[in-house]
Amino acid sequence: MDTWGLAQVQRAWHMARPVTPALAVLFVLAADDAETVKRLEAGDVVISTEKVEGSDLPRSIALGVIDAPPEKVWALVTDCDNFYKTMPRIAASKLLERDAGTAVCRVTADLPFPVPDLTSETRAVMTVEPGVKWERRWSLIKGDYRANTGAWVLTPYKGDLKRTLARYELHIDPKIHVPDSFIVAGQKKSLPDLFTRLREQTVGKQ
Fold it and tell me: Between the CA of residue 99 and those of 81, 102, 122, 151, 161, what are the distances in Å?
């Protein structure tokens, strides 16, 4: 068993949010699952879900290793002006406001027919502990959603500042009349594409 790898998975789950009893169960599963580490080492994106209190839709969570420094990945996941270029299934994106630690972004998701495109304005709070953790966490201001919250949490993988353990989480509840299963399935399908796009734009790039 790769104890360094297990420690890094444990660290990413711990840093993502305060540990609640429900999260603690998921935390133990992630930290003690050698198969999870094996999949991460193989380049897989490990996807899971967790229940969100008061919502019928779960939070989707994806873990993956990117063979590039966290700073490179961070530059992409915080540049909402260019999400339409760098992220999959984004039709339009614009930075509306920004100060030292927050950003307000408008993003339009390009959804498959017959579902209409969905637009949201979110406020992101960004915190950086150089060499340790990079976190962008957002919440909904207004838009075509009842809920739209999520986060990117980046940490060095196995202590290697040239590799990134990336955790992505998303909970959305769009104002559209489609089965919840359709939304969950769509997220599960699109999450590996998200990591592929990030890898394409960072791995081996100067």
Answer: 15, 6, 14, 18, 27
Residues in contact with 196: Cβ distance below 8 Å, sequence separation at least 6, in sequence order = none
Banded model confidence at residue 100, pLDDT cuts 50, 70, 90? confident
Secondary structure element (H or E) that encloses residue 72, with its range? helix 70-77
pTM over 0.70: yes
> What total of structural domains would you count in the chain?
1
Instruction: Give residue-wise pLDDT tens across range 39-66.
Output: 999 999 999 999 999 999 999 999 999 9
25 domain-assigned: no
| Residue 114 CA: distances (Å) to CA of 110, 111, 118, 178 | 11, 8, 12, 10
Taking the C-alpha atoms of residue 127 and residue 137, their distance in angstroms, rounded to an integer, is 9
**CATH number of the domain within which 105 lies:** 3.30.530.20
Phi/psi at 2 (5° precision):
-85, 95
Asked if residues 145 and 121 have their Cβ atoms less than 8 Å apart, the reply is no
Q: Which of 50, 44, 41 is nearest to 13 (CA)?
A: 50
Q: Is the peptide bond before 114 cis (omega within 30 degrees of 0)?
A: yes
Beta bridge partners of 149: 171
